[in-house]
């Protein structure tokens, strides 16, 4: 069998491989290490009917939903951390009936990814017992007919309550999730695809291993010889990666540990300006459609703006940001 080899490509070419209706998940956590450059490019390319399953939402998914790219969102929470506690675009689209929400607990989502990563059909957990997460009335995909077997990425049940055969306790079996794509942002990737993530790894390992295909956006593409000198620092082997895009600052406005901080004022501006559909459309016009690509977006931000966010190499965080200021 021919060995899979990760392909180096530009951002536009990589995002073009994502099909309308694909099931996606992402690296990072709320406002850290989100593949924002890919999110903007998906919006530019007009992706439709995407199905997102993520351990936790954030700025990336709220913009993608607001832009009309998403049909189904399965997660436990969405927002912008201290820069905006709500996912205003999701709320508006859900109220309009334009997005289907399937709500799981945080732990249940992690268990679903873990099952997918291990090649198991489901994962047993205590998470969610005694809560309305297990109320059949809130199985929205089931009630709308999506669990009839016609959708290969949607399980036939949201969950199953079972008796533990060893100690007779009650368990919840949650179905595995196997996304079509996991889109990752990281500090370094080897030229053949070996992934190294510095700082917190969140649920990246489970999400990447659960996915059918993996797209890696990286601050730096480095030689495999270099990245394999310290194998204990690497997370994902090269043969699991399909596409590599070198994309400096590609997580902005979210942060990338050791390299740059989350752009709090920028995220707060997104939150405030996109609370209405008209505000969202104006924001997208300014920052997505009127910038031809991510390089143009960075040029619009400007070097002085980015310099403030840049981490001091010794401190691993910016020493220019005024902490504790709104």
In short:
By secondary structure, this protein is α/β, with parallel strands linked by helices. It is 30% helix and 18% strand.
Summed over residues and divided by their number, the pLDDT gives a mean of 96
- Share of helix among residues? 25-40%
User: Low-confidence parts, pLDDT < 50 over ≥5 residues?
Assistant: none
Task: Please give the largest β-sheet.
Answer: 9 strands, mixed
Structural category is alpha/beta
**How many E strands?**
12
Give the H and E element order: EHEHEHEHEHEHEEEEHEHEHHHH
Whole-angstrom Rg: 20 Å
**Number of DSSP helices?**
12
The amount of beta strand, in percent, is 15-25%
Shape field:
globular
Distance between the termini: 56 Å
Q: What can you see in these coordinates?
A:
The structure is a single chain. This protein is 30% helix and 18% strand. It has helices spanning 11-16, 36-44, 59-66, 88-95, 106-118, 140-143, 204-210, 224-227, 264-273, 277-289, 294-301, 303-309; strands at 7-8, 23-26, 50-53, 70-75, 100-103, 122-125, 160-163, 170-175, 181-190, 195-196, 213-222, 243-246. Helix 2 runs parallel beside helix 3 (59-66), helix 3 packs parallel to helix 4 and helix 5 packs across helix 7 (204-210). The longest helix has 13 residues, at 106-118. 43% of the residues are buried.
Provide keyphrases for this structure.
326 residues; alpha/beta; nine-stranded mixed beta sheet; three-stranded antiparallel beta sheet; 30% helix; globular
Secondary-structure map:
Blueprint: E1 7-8, H1 11-16, E2 23-26, H2 36-44, E3 50-53, H3 59-66, E4 70-75, H4 88-95, E5 100-103, H5 106-118, E6 122-125, H6 140-143, E7 160-163, E8 170-175, E9 181-190, E10 195-196, H7 204-210, E11 213-222, H8 224-227, E12 243-246, H9 264-273, H10 277-289, H11 294-301, H12 303-309
Parallel strand pairs: 1-12, 2-3, 2-9, 3-4, 4-5, 9-11, 11-12
Antiparallel strand pairs: 6-8, 7-8, 9-10
Helix pairs in contact: 2-3, 3-4, 5-7
């Amino acid at each position: 069998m021919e060995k899979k080899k990760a392909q180096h490509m530009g951002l536009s070419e990589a995002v073009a491989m994502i099909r309308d209706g694909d099931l996606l998940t992402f690296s990072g956590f709320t406002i850290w290490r989100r593949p924002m450059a890919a999110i903007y490019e998906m919006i530019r390319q007009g992706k439709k009917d995407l199905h997102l399953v993520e351990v936790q939402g954030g700025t990336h998914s709220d913009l993608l939903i607001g832009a009309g790219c998403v049909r189904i969102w399965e997660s436990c929470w969405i927002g912008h951390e201290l820069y905006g506690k709500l996912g205003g675009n999701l709320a508006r689209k859900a109220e309009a009936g334009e997005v289907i929400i399937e709500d799981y607990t945080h732990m249940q989502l992690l268990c679903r990814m873990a099952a997918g990563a291990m090649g198991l059909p489901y994962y047993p957990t205590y998470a969610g017992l005694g809560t309305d997460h297990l109320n059949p009335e809130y199985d929205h995909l089931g009630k709308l007919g999506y669990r009839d077997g016609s959708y290969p990425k949607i399980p036939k049940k949201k969950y199953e309550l079972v008796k533990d055969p060893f100690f007779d306790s009650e368990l919840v079996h949650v179905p595995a999730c196997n996304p079509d794509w996991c889109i990752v942002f990281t500090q370094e990737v080897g030229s053949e695809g070996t992934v190294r993530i510095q700082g917190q790894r969140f649920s990246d390992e489970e999400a990447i291993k659960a996915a059918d295909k993996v797209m890696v956006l990286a601050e730096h593409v480095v030689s495999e010889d270099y990245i394999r000198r310290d194998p204990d620092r690497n997370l994902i082997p090269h043969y699991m990666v399909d596409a590599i895009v070198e994309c400096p600052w590609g997580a902005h406005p979210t942060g990338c540990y050791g390299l740059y901080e989350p752009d709090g004022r920028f995220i707060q501006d997104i939150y405030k300006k996109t609370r209405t559909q008209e505000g969202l459309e104006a924001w997208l016009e300014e920052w997505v459609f009127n910038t031809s690509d991510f390089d143009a977006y960075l040029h619009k931000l400007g070097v002085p703006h980015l310099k403030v966010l840049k981490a001091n190499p010794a401190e691993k965080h910016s020493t220019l940001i005024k902490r504790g200021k709104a």
